[in-house]
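Reopening this one. Same input as before:
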Amino acid sequence: MVNKKILVIGAGSQSKHNPSIKGIGTCLIERLSREKQLSILFTYCNSEKGASQLVKRVTLSNPSCEISCLRFNSLRYEKDWSVLDSKLSQFGTPYIFVYNAGVRFYKEELSKDERKETMKVNYHCPIFLIKKIANKMAAAYGRGKIIITSSILAGKHHPFLEEYCSSKGLLKRYVQEHEDYWKNKGIEILVVYPNVTRTPMTEERLDFYRGLVKEGKLQKISSSEEIAESIAKLCFNSL
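Same output, byte for byte:
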């Protein structure tokens, strides 16, 4: 079929200090845009400028690529869903949905609000969207694919990321426990577990991670491009 549709939640981020450091979602959009017959819709939260620049880069490099974006706040997912749902009514039901949003705090002791934010963005929001979008996929096509990025492995290398790992661990458990339920509806849900990756989210701790590599406690620091390529391969398996 022509112009298969892909929805990516969480893209557009790029380091303010080093333009070569991009988020996984940003690199994924750039990678997907090189393919033919794809329509891409992605969301951003705080990186409006980065999202706008991403759309411009993609449009210049591949004018035939249909791409658009909108703001979606995973903290306000229930309220913002109406805006996203309205956009999807114009864009169409995606064949593939990638949830790439996430939040982490490098603090020994998180506040109550920070714990709630971590759980909302990393656990409650993706489950909410899985249910909404998977049911749309099942009704429209009788099949679909959902890919979730979860850096739980990277979190295990840092002493202050217990809350982050817990929230991602709960999401992993949800996927495992509901795999058969969604499979019966024709929906495949996959989770990608990047290890430590060079992104705007981790750049302030790169020296810490480089130290782990020198000590032999960490094999390497991956690039966002590498992770994006792995996700893209999973996407293309169904196209």
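So the earlier flakiness isn't reproducible anymore. For the record, The beta strands are 4-9, 38-44, 66-71, 96-99, 144-149, 187-192, 197-198, 222-223.
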